[in-house]
Amino acid sequence: MPELLRVDHLSTTRAEVNLDCLRHNTRRLSARSGDARIMAIVKANAYGHGAVPVAHALTNEGVEHLAVATLPEAVELREAGITGRVLVLGAPLEEMVPYYDRYNVEITVSSQATAKALLRLAREGYRFAVHVKVDTGMSRLGLSPAEAPPVIRKLASASNIRVAAVWSHLATGTREADPMARAQLDRLTSVWQAVADLDIDLHLEHTGALLSALPRIAPPERMLVRPGLGLYGYDPENRERIALKPVMRLVSQVTHVKTIEPGTSVSYRGTWTAERPARIATVGAGYADGVPYTLSNRGQVRIGSACYPIVGEVCMDMFMVHLGAPGEAPEVAPGTEAVLYGGEGPTAAEVAAAGNTTIYELLCRVASRVPRVYLNR
Ligand SMILES: *Cc1c(COP(=O)(O)O)cnc(C)c1O
């Protein structure tokens, strides 16, 4: 047994995370944002890529502002030594509010009730940097455009509170001339204009908006942009506008190969049956690793120099692949790589389409039992 075997090297499946690609994408998106600053979205374990290593790489690349979805995600960054600005995008429950001060994390104010709680705690000496969220069309979180300006003024005039920004979130991926995005932009503009005398920033654009031509409503030095998916190498609208590079390569290994006779079915419930003798490879990854169950009888994986179809239902820990007829199928030995997506494998966009899901869900589903292996740290 090799002496320095780490447990990561014992896993059949791994997610390779190429930090050079992350840096490349960060530079491309930075160039695209002009003078607006990047607030990098590292929620959901940096879309499955590993929040702490990704945050360190982004910070070293000059990104000064990070955002996550939840307070525990922000605390994870702080405990890992990330000292830059961190915003929690989600709405805080009242009992969580003091922890934003304790961990020096910027807070989203999404309701009158949260604003009140902050004003009370600020009088007791707690300190907050606040991003006021406006509901411009998602009907998810935020003050209405009418209620936002007075709340912003009240917060801005309180001691121990700094209103850092006003912001909203777009419901669409913003193709050109997307009327929904335009309407949301107009609503945020009305709020921004009502508080233009205050010294606060504005942010709205996610990756899809950044890669489209959504007009900018504030001077660039007042603007932040909030790319997530683009940092990890994808445009949600699949326009190949600025040559992003997928950061993750999800790869497993063949663990078993056999020939089955005509009439033999594969996997649970026998949903695929061989019509002719078939070479079948078993791959050591399943839905517990983040391979969508919906790829059953639909997905493809790359083994050697070609892609092969997934046959039968995807299991919790493995799935089967049809390599072809004996004599025609390639010689595949256990241990051979099976690329689920990224690198020379199918793209995450293709896999998401085959599995009737999104690239977002695909990436952040990569399970905690799959070791992340960082390249070009
Ligand atoms: C996730 C998220 C983003 C990033 O969106 P992408 O489409 O991944 O760029 C931006 N803003 C908010 C509020 C989000 O929740």
Name the features.
377 residues; alpha/beta; 8-stranded parallel beta sheet; binds pyridoxal-5'-phosphate
Overview of this protein structure:
It is a single chain. By secondary structure, the protein is α/β, with parallel strands linked by helices. The chain is built from 11 helices and 18 strands. The strands form 3 sheets. It has an 8-stranded parallel beta sheet. A 6-stranded antiparallel beta barrel has the order 10-13-16-15-14-17. It has a two-stranded antiparallel ribbon with strand order 11-12. The longest helix is centred in the middle third of the chain and has 16 residues. The mean pLDDT is 95. Pyridoxal-5'-phosphate binds next to α9.
Mean pLDDT: 95
Terminal-residue CA separation: 27 Å
Count every beta strand, where a strand is a DSSP E run of 2 or more residues.
18
What is the structural class?
alpha/beta
How many separate helices?
A: 11
* Element order: H for helix, E for strand: EHEHHEHEHEHEHEHEHEEEEEEEEEHHE
How much beta, percentage-wise? 15-25%
Biggest β-sheet, characterized?
A: 8 strands, parallel
Q: Going across the major beta sheet, what is the strand order?
A: 4-3-2-9-8-7-6-5
Helix content: 25-40%
The gyration radius over C-alpha positions equals 24 Å
Described by the principal axes of the CA atoms, the overall outline is elongated
Put the structure in a nutshell.
By secondary structure, the protein is of the alpha/beta class.
